[in-house]
Amino acid sequence: MNLLSKTIKAKRKENGLTQEDLSLKSGLGLRLIREIEQGKTTMRMDKVNQLLNLFGMELIPAAKSKSNE
After folding, report:
1. Dihedral sign for Cα atoms in the order 60, 61, 64, 65
2. pTM above 0.90?
3. Residue 69 above 90 pLDDT?
4. What's the Cα-to-Cα distance from 13 to each of 9, 16, 19, 64, 66, rounded to whole Å?
5. How far is CA 29 from its chain centroid?
6. Which of 8, 68, 11 is CA-nearest to residue 35?
7. What does the domain layout of the chain look like in residue ranges?
8. Taking burial as the number of CB atoms within 10 A of a residue's CB, which of 18, 21, 51, 59 is the most buried?
């Protein structure tokens, strides 16, 4: 599991949402929600940002930390 998948899963649970709820609220497919939470590594950034937007977050370019290299 990667940082993105952990973050989305944690935010979903903090907000008391099921994966189905998150799918409906974000307008994204349930399959994509499940894949993201399972650590899928290839996906469209606009879809990820659509999902993160629900939690007041977005993907941004950032330098890699030493532990991620």
Report:
1. negative
2. no
3. no
4. 6, 5, 9, 27, 29
5. 13
6. 8
7. 3-56
8. 51
